[in-house]
Fold these 4 entries.
Entry 1:
Amino acid sequence: MLLLTRPSTDTLRGSESRQVRCYRSQFRDRMEMRADFQTVGAYLDRHEGWFRRCAAPMEVKPIDEQAYALTLGRFGNFGFEVEPTIGLRLLPQNAGNYAICTVPLSNQDSALADLYDVDFQANLRLEDNSASDSIEELTAVSWDLDLSVWIHLPKMITLLPDGLVQSSGDHLLRQIVRQISRRLTWKVQEDFHASHGLACPPRRRAAF
């Protein structure tokens, strides 16, 4: 069992301890919806339905009408693992743009707060993608994710080379983000078309 020492500062983000590491990853993707701009926007506005369905098997619990507690799954490095749960707020549409940001969890275990911190910032944009010479209405949904995870590692891991600890953690986070984000993109696209009785476009590669 790995023993942990507490960080010397109040927040992990401001810590200068060698045991606190920040891992970052970005993700970009795009999905095509076979419906008009207003129909797609109305679907995304009702996130209390699609967000919980499409985030599965990740655990989702509502915080309020706009926010949810989301358990991302296990993340770790060199045998040390945490299972981050974060608060996400899905902000109302603003001219075809949606933002998702991190919010504090009021009931988070203080011991866990000393082990990790997560900053999740995402943006979704709706674009009318219908061709002028086609009767089919298409809407493209582009989204970007910027994710940072701060982890307070066991002291023994700091004995390893800094570059190895950083690169291995960054690589693992990229894999997790890619897997979760790709699956979420596919499930939202499939859920939208199924709920509207439309044929779903084929899956496409992410612009990761």
Entry 2:
Amino acid sequence: MIIEDIRKELFDRQDTKYRDFQSKLIPTVDAGSVIGVRTPELRKYAKALLKQGDVNEFLESLPHKYFDENQLHAFILSEIKDYDQCLRCVDEFLPYVDNWATCDQLSPKIFKKHRSELIKKIEEWLRSDRTYTVRFAVGMLMEHFLDEDFDIRYPEMVAKIRSEEYYINMMTAWYFATALAKQYDMILPFIEDHKLDDWTHNKSIQKSIESYRITPEQKEYLKGLKVKKVN
């Protein structure tokens, strides 16, 4: 079975020191499920599997047992060239994404050629009650809709998110920090008018101040917009 072959290949590529290091970075994942395959190796293996053409059995074998299998799954989907197929596979996979690393590695290249269709799916994902589906949606807005396809309604959508989930709020902060770097004049009112919850507001400013893409003058101004007391 291809699933057993893939698992054997992953263990053959195992780096135990990397496994121990990586396990500490993904606290929502059982450390025992981490094999420890480095990201470049996973990317290379994903491309090789796609060239072989027999990955459907693996993609359908959800949920996966190992974190690295989820990572490999994300990298395979990121390389699929047919938009409809890719979108279908992403929808099937998202309910099983249980950590920030897999969520953030999932970045289908084909999406950039189908942004008009993609935005409709993003709006759907934003309404999800699943943490990493929402995080993925915000990540896709950040990746694809802050440059030539920017529209003010997109940050408005993100600003409406209210969640107790750390990994959603952190992605929201990352989104607004990146948006400030790329669309400063359009995004600044979201900070000035305090359209985010206090924690996300301050985290967005913190990330902006840490960015080399924000000018020293902008950083000084943003510092003055921080909320003084946050629980």
Entry 3:
Amino acid sequence: MTQTCIFQQAKSCFIFSTFCFQAILLSLVPKQRETILIFTFCSLSLCQLPGTGDVAVSSSSLAEEIRLRTRMRGSLSWAPPRFQIIFTVQPTNRRSEVVALQHFLCAGCGTEVEPREYFCDCCHGGSEAVIPGRLLSCWDFGRYPVSDFSKRLLDSVWHQPLFDLTCVGKTLYSRVKELDKFRELQEQLMGINKLLSACRLSGRVMAEFDQLPAHLMEQPHLFSMEDLWRVKKGPLVVQARAVLHSAIDHVENCELCLARGFICEFCRERDVIFPFQADICRRCPVCRTCFHKHCFVQKKCPKCARIQSRKKHPDGFHDDTTHFKSSSVQN
């Protein structure tokens, strides 16, 4: 028997064993084509493992050549799925065309399947899950059939903050009222959290912030699938509102926090205002001082005027408003 025949037989045996091994470890994307939102597949060609593409093999060592050249993922007509989350709903293609493109092989393990099936029974157990693309595109939390492989992937990312709504799902804020309401609460909570972190008496109320996911207080617009589900069902909005009310109650009754607030220099009313009060407060875009929203006049900020006067008259400038005190929260 020639070396070529030996090589081909050994290669065929290795491919068969690879199929069996991968059939156990890998599972699939959803049965319905419209729910194939989780993965893209490698092209149906032989995929060598990393590091074997440029291996120089000596013709004198047949065993070494077999060992190196048969390290592959998949076969000539099938390759396993890769981990990938797709953020949009994919178009629906004709089942017969898709199955033909799969060479009538199971998309997950490469075994032969019925002409009308995408997957074998071992790779698709009928599990259901929320599809990220449908959630972000349509605010659809319905559960759709997915493969076991997809199910494990979706379960593993359910709690992870992966979805920045300024990059994906950009229209959700304008279309989903409860999500836009939570965005407002989140902005207020992040602002008041900075104020409370500088107060040595805020330990009790700061502990209440631990009830909320940490990433929601660190970066706006970043959500996990669980966060979005809790926004839709309501508990996250209720919880955020309760924490905000508790924090505001502390600020209004804490002398240390009140000392870090602002008094509007336009109307000179004695009520103290804070940056997190977005409904009544407006900040100067230059000096970041707070004023009543209805009082503020663009380009006529009193503090900016004083700053400019000091720059023009660094030695002789006299601030006739030194009797007026207004402290500010550091940016």
Entry 4:
Amino acid sequence: MLNHSVNKGALEIVKIILDEKDSLDCKVSENKNGTTVIDAGIECTGTAELGRLIGETCLGGLGSVKLNTMYIGDLELPAVIVATDYPKIATLASQYAGWTIKVGKYFAMGSGPARALAQVEKKLYEELEYKDRAKKGVIVLESREKPSEEVTEYIAEKCRISSSNLNCIVVPTASIAGSVQISSRIVEVGMHKLHAIGFDPEKVRRGHGVAPIAPVAKKDNKAMGMT
């Protein structure tokens, strides 16, 4: 059994984002309950590098995301290269957007390592035989609205941590960071499909994938179809 906290691994990357927020073109704020909220494309533009770091955050420090190019015939496209030696935990236990968060009128798809604290997807984590017990958590919310204090209290309570120990990265689908971090799920998509058809994810020893980065759409619903 892998003795690694995906939340502790992700926090190391979050520290980089916080330290370099100006060059990454993201905004950082703090809710009244102490939750750190990183805006990766709502009131700011964001960057491809920000999306790359969010991709690595979602992998819980167990994988790498690199910006590169790929070719389809003579067409050159921006792309990501994703690699992990721990595909089961990095993708299914951490990166996968399996937590639907609904609080009042707020809705977001939750992904990243905080899922391993909340264990809302109980059956999945029982199959993976993985549980994180970190005191601090990181969640990535795919949304165009920043979470209120009520929302972050709900997430922290599910994770069994203090709201002041919760870090939320909010990234709209139709944003440059959104496009990059979604492409960074190329290995996760394969792992999820294998798991869905009954293949034991423990048998996958390494994950490696290359995916083009979709252009930024004007609206989030259109971006969902493009990414």
